């Protein structure tokens, strides 16, 4: 385990951002309590599959200085290490300099479109830096020679220089490495970088939700992976429900490969219901994949991976008649919101409301609706449908490396001991490292008040009246 965490600079606006997110969350929670109905909502975050990992801390790092209008601030710069659920280790750099790292935060592999990289024209240059520097290039003598660094590079220099170069593109930061060798490397990487395409996901299922009538093959769900093969785990109640996972020929499947199409085979006499397929594999996650956390811990980008466990899920919903919705969601940072994709394989239109706007999906069609949200806004959407269908999507929109909220003071999370810059000392016990701050009591009070008061909630309700459930 790692005892130390990043000294990333965080403006006082961080407290404002957290307060704003908490306020919205309180309003949304109140709305869901009154709008979800009797059926329990299946909660879904916007993870599209892949690796899930817990951040440990900075493993190899040096010092850097951010130059801002309020003065210079010294921060730690280098490689983080994460432990993968199911086995494996990841090394990452930060692409979110003004946001703190939350201790033991859980991270999910994410497409660039779900992060600040989605709207960053220089995202491909960041991947080039990752491919052409430490730890992908672990011959430090050769790396030093390429960068024109006299006297060689230590691992700490290489990590710090690489992180500084990344920040210049990911955050547009005016930042320098403290060590001259690390700074020389950062300048070389920054000036040499060229755009490289986003890497393939380790494992995703497309679409992540399907629907149809019992007696039919529901799908297809296409497997996308860089692994040699994947293992298919059927629904937990498959033995009693009779639902099978099959290929297009109707034969049962227990494994698949990249490009394979799989289906849910639902018995013709099955009552309306749903099921979930889990797919798992072991592979090396591609350098340049983004990792995000629902706890507002700073976004990371992959620099190296061991053989790691990756997984993805897909759901199926079926009914004999009426609207039969299949719903999925994904953050869309280019449009500044969350995409809700609704497919309807029933024989009636599926009609619902999103933030006051009515949407209708005709039978046999699929549409994507973007819900615009403010940066750092917590959301909690519940969509209901016929037959007790309930789907809930939760998360926080984190698409920018900086918020437009006010505040000019910078606080530093020291690593591993108080850092002194320009005569100021910064306490290494700052609670922002674990998600708290001096504003915590105020934020908690505001959240409690909002939950009590209730108010304008963001709730999605299916308009066609569902059958009454006792």
Question: What can you tell me about this protein's structure?
Answer:
19% of the residues lie in helices and 37% in strands. With 470 residues, it is α+β, with helices and mostly antiparallel strands. The strands form eight sheets. Strands 3-4-5-17-16-6 form a six-stranded antiparallel beta barrel. Strands 9-18-15-11-13 form a five-stranded mixed β-sheet, with no helix packed on it. The chain has a four-stranded antiparallel β-sheet with strand order 8-10-14-12, with no helix packed on it. It starts with 8 loop residues before the first strand and ends in a 17-residue tail after the last helix.
Labels describing this entry:
single chain; 470 residues; alpha+beta; 7 helices; disordered C terminus
Outline the fold blueprint.
Blueprint: E1 9-11, H1 13-35, E2 42-44, E3 52-68, E4 71-84, E5 89-94, E6 106-110, H2 123-131, H3 140-147, H4 155-170, E7 175-177, H5 180-192, E8 203-206, E9 209-212, E10 217-225, E11 230-233, H6 238-241, E12 244-246, E13 255-256, E14 261-265, E15 273-284, E16 290-293, E17 300-305, E18 307-318, E19 325-332, E20 337-344, E21 350-354, E22 357-361, E23 365-372, E24 378-384, E25 390-396, E26 410-412, E27 419-421, E28 424-426, H7 440-453
Parallel strand pairs: 2-25, 9-18
Antiparallel strand pairs: 1-26, 3-4, 3-6, 3-7, 4-5, 5-17, 6-16, 8-10, 10-14, 11-13, 11-15, 12-14, 15-18, 16-17, 19-20, 20-23, 21-22, 24-25, 27-28
Helix pairs in contact: 1-7, 2-4, 3-5, 4-5
């Amino acid at each position: 385990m790692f005892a130390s965490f990043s000294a990333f600079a965080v403006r006082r606006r961080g407290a404002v951002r957290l307060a704003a997110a908490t306020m919205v969350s309180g309003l949304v929670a109140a709305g869901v309590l009154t709008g979800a109905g009797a059926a329990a909502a299946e909660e879904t975050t916007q993870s599209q599959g892949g690796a899930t990992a817990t951040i440990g801390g900075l493993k190899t790092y040096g010092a850097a200085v951010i130059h801002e209008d309020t003065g210079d601030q010294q921060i730690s710069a280098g490689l983080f290490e994460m432990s993968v659920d199911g086995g494996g280790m990841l090394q990452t750099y930060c692409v979110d300099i003004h946001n703190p790292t939350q201790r033991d935060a859980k991270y999910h592999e994410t497409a660039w479109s779900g992060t600040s990289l989605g709207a960053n024209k220089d995202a491909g240059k960041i991947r080039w830096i990752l491919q052409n520097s430490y730890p992908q290039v672990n011959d430090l003598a050769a790396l030093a020679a390429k960068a024109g660094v006299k006297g060689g590079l230590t691992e700490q220099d290489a990590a710090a220089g690489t992180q500084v170069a990344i920040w210049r593109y990911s955050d547009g930061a005016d930042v320098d490495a403290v060590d001259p060798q690390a700074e020389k490397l950062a300048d070389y990487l920054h000036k040499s970088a060229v755009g490289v395409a986003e890497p393939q996901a380790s494992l995703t299922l497309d679409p992540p939700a399907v629907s149809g009538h019992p007696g039919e093959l529901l799908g297809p769900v296409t497997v996308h992976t860089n692994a040699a093969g994947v293992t298919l785990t059927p629904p937990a109640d498959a033995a009693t429900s009779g639902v099978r996972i099959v290929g297009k020929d109707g034969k049962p499947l227990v494994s698949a490969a990249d490009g394979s199409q799989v289906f849910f085979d639902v018995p013709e006499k099955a009552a309306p219901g749903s099921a979930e397929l889990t797919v798992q594999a072991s592979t090396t996650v591609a350098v340049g994949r983004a990792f995000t956390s629902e706890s507002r811990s700073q976004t990371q980008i992959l620099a190296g991976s061991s053989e790691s466990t990756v997984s993805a899920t897909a759901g199926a919903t079926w009914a004999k008649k009426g609207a039969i919705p299949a719903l999925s969601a994904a953050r869309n940072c280019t449009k500044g919101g969350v995409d809700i994709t609704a497919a309807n394989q029933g024989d009636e239109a599926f009609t619902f409301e999103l933030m006051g706007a009515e949407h209708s999906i005709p039978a046999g069609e699929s549409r994507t609706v973007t819900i615009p949200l403010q940066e750092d806004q917590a959301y909690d959407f519940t969509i209901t449908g016929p037959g007790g269908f309930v789907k809930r999507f939760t998360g926080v929109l984190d698409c920018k490396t900086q918020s437009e909220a006010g505040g000019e003071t910078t606080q530093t999370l020291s690593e591993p001991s108080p850092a002194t810059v320009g005569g100021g000392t910064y306490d290494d016990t700052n609670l922002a490292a674990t998600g708290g701050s001096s504003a915590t009591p105020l934020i908690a009070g505001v959240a409690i008040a909002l939950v009590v008061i209730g108010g304008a909630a963001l709730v999605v309700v299916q308009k066609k009246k569902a059958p009454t459930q006792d």
